[in-house]
Amino acid sequence: MLALEIIGRICGLPLLLPWPSYIVTVSLPSLAVFGGASQPDLGIALLSLGSHLAVTIWRIILGVILGCAAGFLIGSGTFLLARRCSGETILLALLRSLPLFGLIPLFILWFAGREIGIWMYIGFSTAIVVATGFYQAIINIPSNYLLQAKLLGATPLKQFYTVVVPAMAPELMGTVRNILGLSWAFSLGAEYTSSGDGLGHLVYLSYLYADMGKLAVLAAVYCIFGLMVHLVWSRISAQLTRWA
Q1: CATH of the domain at 84
Q2: Residue 94: half-sphere exposure toward Cβ, Cα within 13 Å
Q3: Domain that holds residue 68
Q4: What gap in Å lies between CA 121 and CA 100, rounded to an integer?
Q5: Positive or negative CA dihedral for 225, 184, 138, 144?
Q6: Domain presence at residue 20
Q7: What is the model's pTM?
Q8: Residue 24: CB partners within 8 Å, gap ≥ 6?
Q9: Left (φ > 0), alpha (ψ -120 to 50) or beta: where does 196 sit?
Q10: What number of CA atoms fall less than 13 Å from residue 209's CA on the CB side?
Q11: pLDDT per residue as tens digits for the range 161-203
């Protein structure tokens, strides 16, 4: 931090290379302009930042829930299809190779920048990652687990919730952890070009004015809340898989 402070002050270009104290005392209060203020104000800046953050979080929650549900269906369907085909399914290979961020212009075109387009993009991107992780979690289950369950007389349904689900749970927890991190990037990509609110929209406006100080503040917000989500999910997953 001290080195950044010294280098920034020596360069003397706060818009291009802001130093830490400048970011805190100037760039952060200047976010008040996004709240309609005519001059920097820390209170208005925090309120504006909070309102846009709430919009982004709501979009992430809805998109991740929809995407996880769709991903589980796609993953299980791919697994059932793979059991009847030799080798890796073409569907899974196609899903893995999709350029998710390259699809943003298509969603803008399809939904004309409407709110549902942002939800659908986050949900679609989430579904692709979850489907791949779900499929891999199932096929990584040791075959002798199911064989022993069959020998003990377990029905297919009982095999699923007593063997399959516990065996793939640790790997699924890791997939969800990755999704919770990637969801912030998905929301940024969707909001950057097609939204009038949210953190991604603030990033777009800051980039439009080439204000690196504001971009640094917004990057810090993404990092802080991404880390918070990671720590919370780590605790939850540790409790859910404490037997593993």
Answers
A1: 1.10.3720.10
A2: 6
A3: 48-240
A4: 9
A5: negative
A6: no
A7: 0.85
A8: none
A9: alpha
A10: 17
A11: 788 788 888 888 888 888 998 999 999 988 887 778 889 999 9
